[in-house]
Amino acid sequence: MLLTISTDHRPAADLGYLLHKHPDKFQSFDLSFGTAHVFYPEVGDHRCAACLLLDVDAVGLVRGRNPDQDFLLAQYVNDRPYVASSFLSVAIAQVFGSALQGRCTTRPELVGTPIPLVARLDVLPVRGGEAFLRAVFEPLGYEVEAVRHPLDERFPEWGEGPYFSVTVRHTVPLSTLLSHLYVLVPVFDARKHYFVGEDEVGKLLAKGEGWLASHPAKDEIVRRYLGNRPSLYRMALGRLVDEGDPLGDESPVQERAEESLEKPISLNDQRLGSVLAAVRASGARRVLDLGCGEGKLVREFLKDRQFDEIVGLDVSVRSLEAAARRLKLERLPDAQANRVKLIHGSLMYRDKRLEGFDAAAVVEVVEHLDPPRLAAFERVLFECARPRTIVLTTPNREYNVTWETLPAGKFRHPDHRFEWSRPEFQTWATGLAARFGYAVRFLPVGPEHPEYGPPTQMAIFDRNA
Q: pLDDT tens for residues 343-353?
C-alpha cells in the first residue's frame, strides 16, 4: 500500500523537516507486520512529495496462528498486503510519530503552520462507496477526488470493486492531516489486523481530539474504528460527549449558558416543576430521568416520598459524577440512597435496565439529537422501554424572538441540533403516539406570549390500555 504526501508550500523542502525524514535518503523500517519504506520521488523549491510504502508480510502474519475454520485459505488469499488499512495507521504512528504528535525541534515554527497538503492513498477499500468517503472527509474541509477501480479490467462485466484511489487536499498543519488519516483510514476498511480492546478508545480520542466530537459522521466513524463493538462504542461516545458534544442533557457550561438566557423568568425551575407535577399526577412510583445531566430533576424526585425507585441515565460520565455530588449520595441514609440509581447509557440503544418503569421524564433532550438519530431514540423509549407515562419537554423556537440577547436565527445554545415550532413538535409527538399506542396532550411551560406561545413546550404521553 502506498501513501503519498505532497505540498507546494515554499520552501517545499520544509516537508522533510516536518516528517523528520531526509529527502536525500531512502529509509526502511522493520514493523511487526512487514517493512515500511520512506522516499521522496520529487524534491524541489516549488514542490515536494514524500511516499510511505508498506510491504506487508502476509504469510508471516498468520504463521503459527489458529486457522480460520470457515475458509482455510483466507489467511493467505486476501487484500491485506495491497490496500490502505489499519496497517497504515500503525506505520504512520511508528514511522512518522514525531510529525503525528506535532514535534519538530529543528523548525518548531512549522508545527502549527497550515500548509497546502495533498495526500493520495493507493488503494483504499471503501465500505459505503464514494458517498461515505465524502461524508467523512469533506466536513473536515478536504477537497476529495476518488477514482473507483473495476474488479478486473480484463472482465468489465464483473463491475466495479470496492477499491478507490483517493486524493484529499487541504491547507492544514501536517500533524492534523496525519491525525485524520490515522483515524479515518481504518474506518473505510472492513477490519483491523489486531484485537480491538479498550486501549483503542484512548487512541481514538487522542487522535480525534478537537475534531471528532463535532464531526457529523462521528457515530459511524467511532463504530467502525472500534470494530462494531457496542460496549467500546458506548464508552467512546460517552467520553466524546464529555469533550463537547452532549447528547442527553446540557454540560455544565452549556447549562449555565442557557440558564443565563432564561434567568429573568426562572424557566428552568418552572420546567422542572411542571415535569415533576406531571409525573406525580400519573401516580408513578418507579420513575426514569433520561438525560439526567447533573441530577436536578432526580433531586426533586428524591424529595417526594411518592417515588420508590428513581433511575437517572446519561451518556456523559462527567455529568453522572456531578449528579452524584449534587445528590450527596454517600451521605444519605441507606433508605434514601437505595431509592436512587445513576446509570451510564445511551438513548440510541435498547437497554433492558429501562424496562418496566411507570414513568419517564425526558427534559430538554431531543433537541440535542441529530435528526437522523431520532428514529433510534423513538424506538428505544416508546417501543422498547415503553413506560406507562412519558413527559417530554423541548424549546419552542417561536419564542426565541422575544430574547433580545439571542441573535436572529440562532438556537438557544450551540449544541442544539434543531428547535421545533409548536406545530412541528405537535406533528412529531402526535405521530409518535399513534405509531406506538399512546395518547398525547400538550401543555405550555413558562409565561405564554400571545403570539409566540410559551418558551418551553411539553408533551405528556399516556400508554393506551
A: 998 898 899 99
